[in-house]
Amino acid sequence: MTKFSRRNALLWLGGSGLGTAIVAGTQKEVVAQGNTNKNVTLLNPPTLYNAPQNGYSHIAITPPRTRTVYISGQFGSDLQGNVISNDYEEQLVRAFQNLRFALNAAGARPQDVVKTTVLIVNHTQEKLIPLGREIGNLWGNKPPANTLIPVPRLALDEMLFEIDAYAVIPESGNNGWY
User: How much of the chain, in percent, has pLDDT values that exceed 90?
Assistant: First the structure.
């Protein structure tokens, strides 16, 4: 992604309720999109706009006999919990790297993630560009459900970005999932 139009930026924020006003004008343009992998079904029904083009899916359905993994907000930190930089993009890239580390530690893969929440300090439309790139790097064109919340600050003064995640992985002995 190189640039979001104002319309796409508002659609991308649809998880926070801002997209509601423009859904009616885009419903007929959308084709049903569903992605089924072994752990989750991602749905983007034709009655809602095409959310994957903006980095998330509308609905994530988890299968039976799975364990849920809740990953706390990951931010641009080093191993000592220090913020690595005052730069938004550097923090964002490290937060996604830390999210990958957390998923791996839990025995989950990126495609096991069903929902994320993104918090951005002093959010602007331009901040969606590196965010969209990192989402694409991790999930390609099959992103999980997501809510983006603009915030005035996070837990530490230097923090500019945070992402948490919910993932589902099959229970032990649940043959046939992988």
Answer: 59
